[in-house]
Amino acid sequence: xxxxxxxxxxxxxxxxxxxxxxxxxxxxxxxxxxxxxxxxxxxxxxxxxxxxxxxxxxxxxxxxxxxxxxxxxxxxxxxxxxxxxxxxxxxxxxxxxxxxxxxxxxxxxxxxxxxx
Length: 116
Prior knowledge:
Number of strands: 6
Oligomer: single chain
Radius of gyration: 14 Å
Strand content: 15-25%
Largest sheet: 6 strands, mixed
Structural class: alpha+beta
Low-confidence stretches: none
């Protein structure tokens, strides 16, 4: 499977599912070790993981499962750190090990660059 096939399969999986998979919503991941918090926003519809690696200490961060008050409609006390997105078929930053996750409707995470 190549990236273009994975993206097409992932979009088909999302289109066939019920709901919008929290598109436009934010989530907070809290580190189980150092208690750092990372705010993410879903740019596209799709699935995101329950656990991510802490960018500060390397331990695991647990999802708040979108159960938080940091939502666009409430105004952001601070901007999200990362965004979940569906890659373009020609995105050269995507690694082959991510293809299966993408083909199942999964999104991948990248840091938000606010200096664009």
